[in-house]
Amino acid sequence: MSAVEDIFSKKLDSFYLNNPFFKEGNNETPNHEQIRVMILFLLTELELPNYVTIYSDSIINIHFLNYLSLLLWRNLDRTYRIKLINMKITATISCSENEIEYINARILGDNGTYPGDEINIENTKYTIHHGLPMLITHELKIGYFIEKEGFINKSELVFTAAVLLSDINGIFHFDLNSTHQLMIPYSAFKELDQQSIKSFIFDLLIIQDKKSSETYHVSDSFFNLRACRTPAIFL
Q1: How far apart are CA 28 and CA 39, in angstroms?
Q2: Per-residue pLDDT, 34
């Protein structure tokens, strides 16, 4: 292991092994400043922008922290993850909140034909952000930090059917086969305004997709970037 790789490994050891909150069976919740420090560490190690300075201070919360920690965890070398698991270290910090409301968001696929205007039907919003079509739904769930990549939920099916049966001008096709999807507790950004929520969700989807396509190991911090998407068709 080179000197740079050794430093990287020691930094991860310091974060996961010396941090009591990631210990299996831990019931303590970090305070606001501790969450801030951990989020800044994860943003640095994931080589992401400092979202703390982009959005309001309300994103300093345990849900965003767990999201980033899971991103890092899933992209670590398997041997290192096994080491952490054997030492009773978990990927996320347990949360005492019994979350009910979640946001399920999806960037729609490239093979669709989409409306050019924003549409709201019940608990689902169709919107366009940075030229990419998105569906954002509010889901009621009991649990914590659920991921549903690749699955189509009932709200999305109801929304697409309602649009197809409506009097909205145009013939549309919603490509729901995209795996650019996430589900995260609404508490992660409930204090943001609606435009900021949309922007923040979009950022999370993009970085999730970016990190899932990268090579990121304890002994190798080299990033392989995925090529840009083909634009969808808007009417």
Answers
A1: 17
A2: 93
Domain range for 15 is 3-96
How many domains are there within the chain?
Answer: 2
61, 117: one domain: no
Q: Is 218 exposed, middle or buried (0-12, 13-18, 19+ CB in 10 A)?
A: buried
Q: How far is CA 113 from the centre of its chain?
A: 25
The verdict on 91 and 108 lying in the same domain is: no
CB-based contact 134:107 (threshold 8 Å): yes
- Tell me which amino acid residue 180 is: H
Q: Are residues 180 and 158 in the same domain?
A: yes
pTM: 0.75
Per-residue model confidence (pLDDT) at position 179? 65
Distances (CA, A) of 188 to 60, 64, 68: 8, 6, 12
| Token output for 118 | 């924003």
Cα–Cα distance list, 229 to 109, 141, 213 (Å): 10, 32, 13
